[in-house]
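quick one
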Amino acid sequence: MTDIAIFGASGYGGQELLRYLATHPQIRVAAAVSGRWAGRTVAEALPHLEGFHEGLRFTAPDQPLPSSCAGVFLAVPHGTARDMVPRVEGLKIVDLSMDFRDESDGFVYGLTESNRNRIREADRVANPGCFATGALLALAPLASIGALAGDVVLSQTTGSSGSGAHAKAGTHHPERAQDMRAYKVLSHQHRAEIEDDVGRMGAGPCAVSMVPQSGPFARGIFTAAHVRLDPRLDSETDSDTDPEFDPFAIFAKHYADEPFVRMRPDTPTLRRVARTNYAEVSLHVADGRAVILSTIDNLGKGMAGQAIQNMNLLLGLDETMGLKTPGANA
Ligand SMILES: NC(=O)c1ccc[n+]([C@@H]2O[C@H](COP(=O)([O-])OP(=O)(O)OC[C@H]3O[C@@H](n4cnc5c(N)ncnc54)[C@H](OP(=O)(O)O)[C@@H]3O)[C@@H](O)[C@H]2O)c1
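structure w/ NAP:
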């Protein structure tokens, strides 16, 4: 077993890391760091984890980490992770905040499906944002063959857990239930992250317009990405019989061997991916345009699940370890 530590273990991300890692065959949580819950056992603070992480108590942020730790997850707010890195120097790091998504300080951007070869060689991973993950999984098949450029319009609806464990007016149930609203229209912080990463994949210059929305559910992000189809891929041209230029064949090939991305012939759903590290993607083409839909659990593939996938790679383990739990249909 390899020992790891979790900072921010009382947050939604930290709690999900504890849940997934409860059954991980090769990783043991040796330190769960939380100011709020310091001294309590995992089962006292999180009764759904009774019987797992036996003997583990949350420890205060000023306590030293066990010397056995080989890796650390930083599941803390933006701006705080950067201050913590000097404390965990020498350990494998997966940071869930946006502090290093520009690949500063030796961090590699952690969209696993696009970057796994670089992640395997790295010591530090900047886990992608949840909106960015949903968008990039939709755009990657076109971006990676150089068939994405120009305007990309993203309509993305997230659940309330995207705002973390601390209640705010915008996440309060009476305000959020049975309602739908947009926020940070055209100004969300993940826009630049998406533009940067499609560029790394091989896209031409893209202008991303994002309309993030708050949905009346706790988990999940539903993404609709609208793009103009590269003329080479437009089935009305004479290239329509060549699989190299068939958009459906391109998506099928791109995700054929991906353990956590499933192509769907119709619409993806949030329910099927909830509490899992799976993502669903579907492609719809008409009149020279394409709409790509994707669903993820913002706390799963959008956060803790992908963070574990990346930590598995940093530690030289099979990237699927601890993550192959099926979703549910109801
Ligand atoms: N929620 C999502 O869907 C999502 C998805 C992707 C990425 N992220 C990012 O992942 C990180 C964690 O998100 P979250 O949703 O788990 O947040 P959260 O629920 O608010 O939890 C963050 C935890 O960090 C600790 N913390 C708070 N302020 C701190 C400080 N100044 N210094 C050290 N620790 C502090 C707190 O634990 P104690 O008070 O107990 O110490 C808190 O429970 C954030 O950067 C977030 O943007 C979130």
